[in-house]
Specification:
mainly alpha; three-stranded antiparallel beta sheet; extended
Length: 197
């Protein structure tokens, strides 16, 4: 498989992942509406309907990862470059352990050194520990690749434009469960049949 075909397959896998997760998100919204309307059993039944979508998304992610490794291998590059090593670096693990035992004053001082800025006032000790450990591991094992960072920046920008919400495109597929809530009544429709809850 040549590079362009591999990249096309990876893009297709990622698009399919997005579609599966988007559909799962729609089902979870319907399940939440049912739960809020007092139909908890039905909500759980609906929510179980997206388990296969999450599984498929995970499998597609494995496919994309394997294709990326094959592509790198064909280019004569290390297929595992940029991935976290299977055996963690003992010095990194020791430093993470040391961070876990620091008090708030030590955490704030370490933040100033590592991040070269003042720590956010809203960050308590737990969040400071997590952030510092993440930064340490990122430096040791590598951070996000450029494409992932760009996607996250796009999501952040979209969130800023939409009052803190990420709006996914709505798509209704065959077999979808549509839930309508009106005056405390919930109506679910599947394949043209209405069910009053």
């Amino acid at each position: 498989m040549d590079r362009s075909a591999t990249e096309a397959a990876i893009k297709l896998s990622l698009r399919e992942i997005r579609e599966r997760l988007s559909e799962a998100a729609s089902i979870s919204v319907a399940a939440e509406a049912c739960a809020n309307a007092g139909q908890v059993d039905h909500a759980v039944t609906l929510a179980l309907g997206f388990e296969h979508l999450v599984h498929e998304a995970h499998e597609l992610l494995n496919v994309a990862s394997l294709l990326k490794r094959l592509c790198r291998e064909q280019q004569g590059l290390d297929p595992c470059e940029g991935l976290m090593p299977l055996v963690p670096d003992p010095s990194v693990e020791r430093e993470v352990t040391r961070i876990q035992s620091m008090n708030i004053a030590e955490l704030r001082a370490t933040w100033r050194i590592q991040m070269k800025s003042e720590p956010p006032k809203a960050f308590g000790p737990d969040l400071l520990r997590r952030s510092l450990a993440h930064r340490l591991q990122e430096k040791a094992y590598g951070g996000l690749d450029a494409n992932t960072a760009r996607l996250l920046n796009q999501l952040i920008a979209q969130s800023a434009r939409n009052a803190g919400k990420i709006v996914l495109p709505r798509r209704i597929k065959a077999g979808a469960v549509i839930v309508r809530e009106w005056k405390a009544n919930v109506t679910a429709s599947r394949s043209g049949r209405r069910v009053y809850l």
